[in-house]
Design a protein that fits this description.
4 helices; seven-stranded mixed beta sheet; 151 residues; Glutaredoxin; alpha+beta
Length: 151
């Protein structure tokens, strides 16, 4: 499942954000990007992670980073999630799992003995040249900003 490593070129993607606009990795050429994959809007862990990034957003911007969240949720669900928690960054609708698959984070999971396919919570830090600087697979949902920025 997981095939990307630090130093690899980040796979390009094209999908819709909460405004229904097409977003591609190439839109961020020359910028640093935190691309985080999470399972589902408005669930406890995903909400904690999004709010940690929201609270740290000024620090990310000050260091030249943009943030994008990616989940299989629809554009409509993303709009509600952003409004409910005042998220200052875009969320991408990956309903066909193409972005998650390209990044190797879509695959078999188990929850309470039930096996299913889903997103493995993972964050990629991508540099201005589109190379993967860092991959975090053990995400601290309560302090993801601190985990990323060491603050």
């Amino acid at each position: 499942m997981f095939h990307l490593k630090e130093g690899d070129q980040a796979p390009d993607f094209s999908t819709l954000n909460e405004k229904g606009e097409t977003v591609q990795l190439t839109n961020f050429k020359g910028k640093k990007l935190v691309l985080y994959f999470y399972p589902k809007d408005d669930t406890p862990g995903c909400t904690a992670e999004a709010c940690s990034l929201r609270d740290g957003y000024p620090k990310f911007i000050a260091q030249g980073y943009e943030i994008l969240g990616v989940s299989p949720d629809s554009v409509k669900k993303h709009v509600k999630f952003i409004e409910k928690y005042s998220l200052p960054f875009s969320l991408l609708a990956d309903e066909d799992h193409s972005v998650a698959t390209a990044y190797g984070v879509w695959g078999p999971k188990k929850f309470m003995g039930r096996a299913y396919d889903g997103i493995h919570r993972t964050t990629f830090v991508i540099d201005a040249a589109g190379k993967i600087e860092q991959i975090i697979t053990k995400v601290d949902t309560n302090d993801h900003t601190g985990q990323l920025l060491g603050a």
